[in-house]
Amino acid sequence: MLGIKGLSRGFETLKPGEVVLKTLRKIDGETILRKLGEAVRLDEESFPSLTSRSVFEMLVATVLSQNTSDRNTARTVRRLREKIGITPESISKAGLRELKTAIRSSGLYNVKARVLKKLARIVVENYGGNIEKILEKPVDEARRELMSLPGVGPKTADVILLFAGGKHAFPIDTHIFRVGRRLGLIGLRDSYDDARRKLMKAFPADSYLKAHLLLIEHGRRVCKARRPLCSNCVLLEYCSFGQDFLKREA
Ligand code: SF4
């Protein structure tokens, strides 16, 4: 249980176990960027998409990232690069068993190996090995085309558009969904596309990459799924979920 001592500004204490909230302040994208920008340290290793070397590698990393942690994905990507290489040619030529062994550490390796083989073959056959061509297209067309590839859903397409294409896209993972909902930026029943549109409206277009990374890291370190560390959160004064949570816990 969170103690009174741990409560941060925005609260005043009455007697043990009681807290009074000050007025909830309205939040906006600029404030989130400023507050989290001051509080959150971004580490490249925690974001495989930042350290990927090509669009194809990003596609491979996102397939490998399903149902495992980002750090584990980064390890598996390194191992795959060492053992087989991460190009459409190297993966399409690799034996299925060899590929499974190389990616075993990412889990679900039987399924993932098949998806990677299929993906590599399409890139070789349909794009002459150069999937980057898609990013030359207008953003909506590029998004549709990326989503037609095996293993590529809306989030992966948005990751590629944002990280590799430098386009205006806002990928939303489970951390961003949770933080966005708690802060009231996203509705509880919003679909991926609803949430994406709302966040793209809430943040300045040239800050999408920074906002995406900050929200993820905030979700990992502070706004955790089970026990958010609201008393240490720089957004507490703007967050009714956090204030209610602390009242319940007091
Ligand atoms: S106050 Fe709590 S619920 Fe709100 S953003 Fe911060 S950690 Fe998340």
Give a topology summary:
Layout: E1 11-13, E2 19-21, H1 29-39, H2 48-51, H3 55-64, H4 70-83, H5 88-93, H6 96-103, H7 109-127, H8 139-147, H9 154-164, H10 174-182, H11 192-202, H12 208-221, H13 240-249
Antiparallel strand pairs: 1-2
The structure holds iron/sulfur cluster (SF4).
Iron/sulfur cluster (SF4) binds at residues 179, 182-183, 222-223, 228-230, 233, 235-236, 239, 241-242.
Query: Which percent range describes the beta-strand content?
Result: under 5%
The global form is globular
H/E element order: EEHHHHHHHHHHHHH
Please give the domain count. 2
| CATH secondary-structure class of the largest domain | Mainly Alpha
Rg is: 21 Å
User: If helices are DSSP runs of H or I spanning 4 or more residues, what is the number of helices?
Assistant: 13
What is the average of the pLDDT values?
87
Uncertain stretches of 5 or more adjacent residues: 1-21
Bound molecules: iron/sulfur cluster
- For CATH, the homologous superfamily of the largest domain is named as Hypothetical protein, domain 2
Biggest sheet layout: 2 strands, antiparallel
Total count of strands: 2
CATH arch. level architecture of the largest domain? Orthogonal Bundle
Derived structural class = mainly alpha
Brief synopsis:
With 250 residues, the chain is mainly α. It has 13 helices and two strands, in the order E-E-H-H-H-H-H-H-H-H-H-H-H-H-H.
Write a structural description.
This protein has helices at 29-39, 48-51, 55-64, 70-83, 88-93, 96-103, 109-127, 139-147, 154-164, 174-182, 192-202, 208-221, 240-249, and strands at residues 11-13, 19-21. The longest helix has 19 residues, at 109-127. The protein has 2 domains: 1-27 and 170-250, Endonuclease Iii, domain 2 (Orthogonal Bundle), CATH 1.10.1670.10; 46-164, Orthogonal Bundle (Endonuclease III, domain 1). It contains 13 helices and 2 strands. It is mostly helical and 250 residues long. Helix 3 packs across helix 4 (70-83), helix 3 packs antiparallel against helix 9 (154-164) and helix 6 crosses helix 7 (109-127). The N and C termini lie close together (7 Å). A hairpin with a 5-residue loop joins strand 1 (11-13) and strand 2. A two-stranded antiparallel sheet has the order 1-2. Iron/sulfur cluster binds at residues 179, 182-183, 222-223, 228-230, 233, 235-236, 239, 241-242.
